[in-house]
Design goal:
single chain; alpha+beta; about 120 residues; three-stranded antiparallel beta sheet
Length: about 120
């Protein structure tokens, strides 16, 4: 998959705009990127190990670093930085943004967790 045509962090560092050649730009909230991080810390090593991450409503993007020609590493204000966001995974987040966000909100509710600390 080709890299995005645009990756832009908002001035308040709360969103990252991602635009692939085949789509309009989409704003991904830092909170969403953090709680859906592809890191082993969040995703585990199997679906059963995946963690629902609460309390990240106010997290921001501290830094975005290129990883070769296939991904970026996002460093978040809470110190999390182990997720490698490949172009296919970012494309998935862009195209399935609403579905993935709603599933996360349902998980929080089912587990009695909150977006706030």
């Amino acid at each position: 998959m080709k890299p995005p045509k645009e990756l832009r962090i908002s001035k308040d560092r709360a969103t990252m705009t991602v635009r692939f050649a085949d789509a309009d730009p989409v704003e991904l909230p830092a909170e969403m990127l953090r709680v859906l991080s592809p890191s082993a810390e969040v995703q585990g090593h199997s679906p059963e190990q995946r963690v629902t991450v609460p309390g990240k409503r106010h997290v921001t993007i501290a830094q975005v670093e290129p990883v070769g020609h296939y991904a970026v590493k996002i460093v978040f204000s809470d110190g999390h930085q182990s997720g490698i966001f490949t172009w296919p995974y970012l494309h998935e987040l862009v195209t399935e943004k609403d579905k993935k966000w709603q599933a996360y909100l349902v998980e929080l509710q089912e587990k009695g967790l909150s977006r706030d600390i």
